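G.,

No rush on this.
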Amino acid sequence: MIKAVLSVLLVLVAVSSALGKPEKNIPKRGKRIPQTLSRGWGDQLIWAQTYEEALYWARSRNKPLMVIFHLEDCPHSLGMKKAFAEDKEIQRILDEDFIVLNLIYETTDKHLSPDGQYVPRILFVDPSMTVRADITGRYSNRMYAYEPSDLKLLLSNMEKAKKLLKTEL
């Protein structure tokens, strides 16, 4: 009898503690805890950890994915990172409308390096998992490269990625 009462009590305590835990709610706006996954590209953004995770998020949330390839000690990457992180409009649009991933290592997906492996390089992937090779930067020899002075072009390309997403799906 005592064992049965203790068992029921234990089950009730376990259930009540599981139901009493608040859900982790990530605020859409306001201050967030910085993530180390940002690597300085936007501490307030939610960054995917791997390419596979980013593809899953893009598909399940029906949002385009922005993939940034860079190196920690590359002067071009550092310059782009600083300008990118300080641009409030880019950060806002990424927060609201994109899945973001930054990589310091190449992936095995050859579609993410259609014109070679260089940094910094920014590509867009739509929720159907198609790399948007048609959304390019201003250079013909490094089609997906951007410099700090190219932020307006990057913003324009982000808008293209959003619009094409809506018309294609």
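When you get to it, here's the other one too:
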Amino acid sequence: MALAFSFLMTEALLIFSPETSLLRSFSRKVKVRVHWVLQLLALLCALLGLGIITYNKHLNGKAHFVTWHGLTGLLTVLYTSGQCAGGVLLLYPKLMKNWTLAKLKLYHATSGLVGYLLGCASLMLGMCSLWFTTSVTSVSWYLAMLCPLLTSLVIMNQVSNAYLYRKRSQH
């Protein structure tokens, strides 16, 4: 699940960044398709991770979804599933007759940001677990904690600059 949210989803969102995208010179259509593929891979990895973790907890007779990490992780996977379903509407905007494409993009970007922040919060809560704090200590723990924190700031800045500030100034 960490692979899904810390790498695949981050890369899927950075595809649209004019500063950091590896596909900077590609058309928007290509970027959208790559974003779609990476997000689908992230969702599949998250679902696979959730299944493996749940099965492992079941085998060991341990309760699952009882910690803040487990609850936010489950919420994040469910939210991401819904967000991916909503993203399909952007591929076929004519299905939403009463909505403009600009509004759909705005809502998809802002709700996607919420989902990404949920994923980062779940990662950070996992880093506070007993297993992680005994495995990773001292400066390494702080560096690990900085990764989702800094990437969430970068993604928030990107979405804010691309949609929120621009849209607000246009009204």
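The radius of gyration is 17 Å. Helices lie at 2-14, 28-59, 68-91, 101-126, 130-135, 138-170.

Enjoy the weekend,
O.
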